[in-house]
Design goal:
About 35% of the residues lie in helices and about 15% in strands. By secondary structure, it is an alpha/beta fold. Helix 4 runs antiparallel to helix 14 and helix 15 packs parallel to helix 17. It binds pyridoxal-5'-phosphate.
């Protein structure tokens, strides 16, 4: 297709099937991919179909999002119906019934008094929204000096400027200038010497939360707005919170009037066991929870931020006609996404999927830890239906060994995800025990043959 053809002529003709150049793929090795593409053309339940007609077992729920499996009938029908009935409604100063219903449903799934829900379109937007709400909350209460945000080393909070500023993954930050001012970081909690091969949450490391006291002493509590952490850090390679660690963070934040934000973009909706949130699993009450992914099971983009009643109430002052929060997106609470969200929540409930996640967890744990002793493996970690296999990197070629495992698994009909030299697994919650066996048998075959 020549660039000189008119746009009308271009619209009437199909793009050349083999032209992969125009699409700049996110978080991908573009040149390597385009030289040897891996394409999915369909998905159903636990499987993807490739363009050459192969079935691939989904051990990653897409990107940690398709928790109910693929193309589930209730969601498909709800989306089809909604787009016919009301395709879009303005998000500002107008409403539509489903977004109110979804907010109420999400609020009932949240722990404690996280009673109010702000909608976004992604995890990154949820994080930036949560950080802005935290700053504005202190501002409207007359504590405008609380502007500092505290994240954690190795944290992943999406790719907005807020998220990469509080995040702690070096490559996600270093190319992008000076980021937000006034951000500090807690140390990460990963320690192979102390915690390798822990099953579930590790014993060692609660004291690392005390580092927050040092940060408070350094800057002054009156300058700190919020601490944000993933209860289980996912994208950085599945790092579990040491026993008592999140409780300590909660205590220190409460003592100093600092808001605690749990970024539950991957941990929410049954991923960690029989509860909608990891907060509930760990018994720690944050002030704000960010979500996305499992909210619509990856079908239609949608994120959400659940905030404590005290935060919402602090904004509901001033003249009745005044806008209380100067923030929002054109697609906040999009009708089609709201319909997908409601149908997804119905599916979790009707199929008892959070409970199923908890019931399968011991089987998952045993099958995963049975890989111990295979070549290259230096740690195995798990909680709920999350698993991680950390491998020793090839000297001078970090990430290469895990990526080779990814390629070989794909050839053998298994989709895994790798981050650094860690294989991260997070299957849809509808997975069966034979499918769990299939994942680990394929992985075992592949890992044994890795260089
Ligand atoms: C904890 C966490 N926060 C935020 C995000 C960003 O979500 P999105 O890619 O939808 O912007 C992710 C994505 O993996 C995540 O794991």
């Amino acid at each position: 297709m020549s660039k000189t053809q008119s746009s009308a002529a271009q619209q009437n003709s199909k793009p050349a099937a083999n032209n992969l150049e125009a699409f700049w793929m996110p978080f991908s090795a573009n040149r390597q991919f385009k030289a040897a593409p891996r394409m999915f053309v369909a998905a159903k339940d636990m499987h993807y179909t490739t363009d050459d007609g192969r079935q691939v077992l989904d051990a990653t729920a897409g990107l940690w999002c398709c928790n109910i499996g693929h193309a589930r009938p209730k969601v498909v029908k709800a989306v089809q119906k909604q787009i016919e009935e009301l395709d879009y409604a303005p998000a500002f100063q107008m409403g539509h019934p489903k977004v109110f219903e979804l907010a109420s449903r999400v609020a009932t799934l949240m722990p404690g008094t996280l009673d109010h829900v702000f909608f976004t379109n992604s995890g990154s937007e949820s994080v930036d929204t949560a950080l802005k709400i935290a700053l504005a909350y202190h501002n409207v209460r007359g504590q405008a000096g609380r502007t500092r945000l505290i994240g954690r080393e190795r944290g992943y909070h999406g790719v907005g400027f807020g998220g990469i500023s509080v995040g702690g993954i070096v490559n996600n930050r270093k190319f992008f200038g000076s980021l937000l001012n006034g951000v500090d970081h807690l140390p990460h909690t990963h320690n192979l010497k102390e915690n390798a091969y822990s099953k579930g949450i590790p014993n060692w490391g609660a004291h690392l939360a005390d580092e927050l006291e040092k940060i408070v002493a350094l800057h002054g509590a009156e300058t700190i707005a919020a601490v944000i952490v993933e209860p289980v850090a996912g994208s950085t390679g599945v790092l579990l919170p040491p026993k008592g660690y999140l409780q300590k963070l909660r205590e220190i934040c409460t003592r100093h009037g600092i808001l605690l934000i749990f970024d539950e973009v991957i941990t929410a909706f049954g991923r960690c066991g029989n509860a909608a949130t990891a907060a509930e699993i760990f018994g720690v009450q944050p002030d704000i929870i960010t979500m996305a992914k499992g909210l619509t099971a990856g079908t239609i983009p949608m994120g959400a931020v659940a905030v404590d009643k005290k935060i919402y109430d602090a904004f509901m002052n001033g003249p009745e006609g005044a806008i209380e929060l100067f923030h929002g997106y054109t697609y906040s609470g999009h009708p089609v996404a709201a319909a997908a969200g409601l149908a997804t929540l119905d599916t979790y409930q009707e199929e008892g999927l959070f409970q199923r996640s908890a019931e399968l967890a011991p089987y998952w744990e045993n099958a995963l830890h049975a890989l111990k002793g295979l070549p290259h493996i230096i740690d195995i970690r798990n909680i709920g239906l999350i698993g991680a296999i950390e491998m020793e990197g090839i000297p001078g070629k970090p990430t290469a060994r895990a990526f080779e495992a990814f390629l070989q698994c794909f050839e053998k009909g298994l989709l895994i995800r790798t981050t650094g030299d860690t294989i991260a697994l997070s299957p849809p919650l509808i997975i069966s025990k034979p499918q769990i066996d299939e994942i680990f048998s394929t992985l075992s075959t592949v890992i044994k043959k890795l260089a």
